[in-house]
Amino acid sequence: MITGMHVILYSRDVDADRTFLRDVLGLSSVDAGHGWLIFAAPPSEIVCHPAESNDRHEIYLMCDDVQAEIVRLADKGITCSSFSDGGWGLLTMIDLPGGGRLGLYEPRHPSPHRT
Q1: Burial class (CB within 10 angstroms; exposed 0-12, middle 13-18, buried 19+) of 11
Q2: pTM higher than 0.90, yes or no?
Q3: What is the rounded CA–CA span in Å between residue 105 and residue 60?
Q4: Is residue 66 classed exposed, middle or buried when 0-12, 13-18 and 19+ CB atoms within 10 A define those classes?
Q5: How sure is the predictor about 8, in pLDDT bands with cuts at 50, 70 and 90?
Q6: All residues at 6 or more sequence positions from 109 whose CB lies less than 8 Å from its CB, including other chains
Q7: In terms of Cα–Cα distance, which of 74, 75, 85, 44 is closest to 62?
Q8: Where do the DSSP E strands lie in the chain?
Q9: Cα–Cα nearest to 79, from 66, 95, 59
Q10: Which residues have CB under 8 Å from 63's CB, separation 6+?
Q11: What is the Cα–Cα distance from 92 to 81, expressed in whole angstroms?
Q12: For 42-61, what is the mean pLDDT?
């Protein structure tokens, strides 16, 4: 039986990205030893999209109001791209302190968590 999902974000500056997850996103965590933080994540969804290759995967955080979240993150010094309307939701990209990017979107599709 599947009991959860473990997402790995690779980073060039893990301390900065861990601080971002804790202090900016407000995710709670446990220390698995030696400062190795494992963060609690909000409910998740998995969807399969057609593609020419099978080795591409994306991670998106979800929110109720992407425009308000962009402003909230900017107030904390975090840069987001301008948002776009993908039809299925409003989408932006968050620049992580460690140099990576993380998707953020306001879904406009049915969710198994909102039934």
Answers
A1: middle
A2: no
A3: 7
A4: buried
A5: very high
A6: 88, 89
A7: 44
A8: 29-31, 37-39, 60-62, 84-85, 89-95, 101-107
A9: 95
A10: 69, 104, 105, 106
A11: 5
A12: 88
**Tokens at residue 73, please?**
């993150």
Angstrom distance (rounded) from CA 106 to CA 61: 9
Give 102's DSSP letter.
Answer: E
| Residue that has been written with the tokens 């968590």 in this structure | 113
Instruction: Give the pairing of strands 29-31 and 89-95.
Output: unpaired
Whole-angstrom distance, CA of residue 88 vs CA of residue 26: 26
**Average pLDDT for residues 41-48, to the nearest whole number?**
89
Tokens representing 87?
A: 């039809």
- 94, 101 contact by CB (below 8 A): yes
45, 11, 81, 106: CA torsion to nearest 10? 10
- Whose structure tokens read 């992580």? 96
Residue 4 has pLDDT above 80, yes or no: yes
Tokens of 69: 């979240």
